[in-house]
Design a protein that fits this description.
CATH class: Mainly Beta
Number of helices: 0
Low-confidence stretches: 1-15, 117-123
Number of domains: 1
Shape: globular
Largest sheet: 6 strands, antiparallel, barrel
Radius of gyration: 15 Å
CATH topology: Thrombin, subunit H
């Protein structure tokens, strides 16, 4: 089954198509933190628009600085073993941005389990 044939070509925020890997239209809440480099650190929230093996397109509260490292955290829609809620955490560089969206190239990532404090209490 070829899933790539079922995914329409997405163009968000006027960003031109430059990707080489397939991205999937995953829309989940994202929390981001622009890491301290030569400027101040700051945080914000948004929504993922699509995710691929090389990067993530997400909405932002303002324009993120291109070239800066950012850490994102996304509540993952799938559950480990059907029961355990997961969080996708990634760091990478902002490679494109406008006033309301940004593209981050993934450099490192991991899946973490979400606890009851994240709103996932067990029954």
């Amino acid at each position: 089954m070829d899933l790539t044939a079922q995914i329409p070509d997405f163009n968000y925020g006027g960003l031109s198509e430059r990707r080489h890997a397939t991205r999937f239209p995953v829309k989940e809440e994202v929390r981001y933190k622009v890491l301290n480099g030569k400027g101040p650190s700051f945080t914000g929230t948004g929504q993922t628009l699509n995710i691929g093996s090389g990067g993530i397109l997400f909405t932002t509260e303002g324009k993120l600085p291109i070239g800066r490292m950012v850490e994102i955290s996304v509540n993952w829609p799938a559950r480990l073993g059907g029961d355990c809620a997961l969080k996708f955490v990634a760091t990478g560089r902002v490679i494109r941005a406008d006033d309301s969206t940004a593209v981050m190239r993934i450099e490192r990532y991991e899946f973490r389990t979400r606890g009851a404090a994240a709103g996932q209490a067990k029954a």
